[in-house]
Amino acid sequence: MADSAVPPSLPCGFINAANRYLSAEPFRFQVVATGSALRLRQVWMLRFVPSQGAGAAGQAQESGQRLHLLSSLQRFLAADPNGKVTCDQESPGPGALFLLRQYPDGKVSLQCELSQRYLGGAEDNVTCFAQTVSEGEKWSLHLAQHPNGHMLNPGKQRYMRCDQQTGHMRCDRDLPWGPEAVITLYFDPKERKYGLRSGAGSLLATDGSLQAELSPQTLYSLELRGGLLALRDADGRYLTGREGTVKSFKTDKPGRDELFALEPSAAQVSLRTFAGGRFVCCRPGADIYANATSVSNTEIFQLLLNDVTKQACFRSSSGTYLAVGPNDSVVSTSTPDKGVWFSLQYREQRVTLRMADGRHVATRPNGQLLLVPEAAGKKEEFLLMLVNRPLLILQSEAGFVGLFPGTQRLDGNRPAYDTSTLMLSEDGFCHFRVANKYWSLDKDGLIMASEDHPSNFTLQFVSSSCLVLKAPNSKYLVAEAGGRLWAGASDAASATPFRY
Predict the structure, then answer these.
(1) What tens digit of pLDDT does each residue of 107-116 get?
(2) Is a pLDDT exceeding 70 seen at residue 105?
(3) For residue 91, which of 101, 156, 165, 210 sits 20 to 30 Å off, Cα-Cα?
């Protein structure tokens, strides 16, 4: 969770009545409304300014939420008393404080607190001079966070999950664990509304049921409350976690049970021995064994990577870590010291875990894990299986991975994503399927979605939030700014890192 002492912030795009995004241009730090899609120049960080004094929070909701808007160029949006809009301030001045006002149609306005005028306009004529709000001063919000995440209700400190047995979503977990805890926040560009999608692809309806198809009952208007999200249905009711299932509830305004935060979702993996096919199991206070035949919470680990050293550690659902213990054994520890960090050495779909002194984690015939000094062989090889991304959404600096309209070719710069279903083969390869077709390579190395049978891809974790993909031709995927998505990089360092 974020530090509560830090003012909340949220990355967003603003869409005007002409269906164009508010954009920060690098040339003279101009502000225009010309963007046709949400890309880096169209992303604004909303930095909410906390209200002061008793009852100030409630008053702020009535009069508007105070915030600064920071562009991708790290400059603050501002307006002078004459309505001129600039975005060249490195620190916010008096004209950079805006009031975010929300309306029943789901749109918002931005009022400069200094001049009491509203931000509006189109194309290259963006001003802050209107005294009242018309459609030209209203904006739709498009969240710029990665769509996959965990939905936390801060009021109850509980996370949302999909309960496949009952066909509902619940908000009852103190820890987001496994594929059921990953929620996709879907944005519908036509309706400019949002939906909540489970890992199985179903959407949450207002009555709490999970539906396979998009409908008015699965779409919600977004409201912001100091960096938290509230979702309102067409009848003015809010999604709530106050009952056993998450569904719409009639209330005048969202309270603690109706406010959610979309948190980033770290990779959760299982470790399966390549030779024996057994899963590593972590039980508190015990030596670590690879003797499980199936995956439950005790066989799932959160994979945490140090972005500087590139080493990884494995945290269990009980909060303990895999670590080096006495007599070269691997144990469970609650102390994240240097003994919990391993280097991941990839061998196609397999991986070995190496300590800084060159020793590798190996498996005894009885399944116990220990460190051995010799070079890594089959008993030191594991399959590192990503378990909490049944629906994979890949995003790079160029854009999302998605189908080019009217073709079976996947591009890497799409403004909107196409979800790929991730399936793991018995021998550890990744199979991706989109639009009921499997990923494949054409003769030029381009990524296609055209086959009825899977091709073997592998993935490698390269940072705390990114992975790279290796294709069947032993080349790594590259997403170019022009859109080409192809397997052409010779090593992971030259590949495109994808947020997932």
Answers:
(1) 999 999 999 9
(2) yes
(3) 101
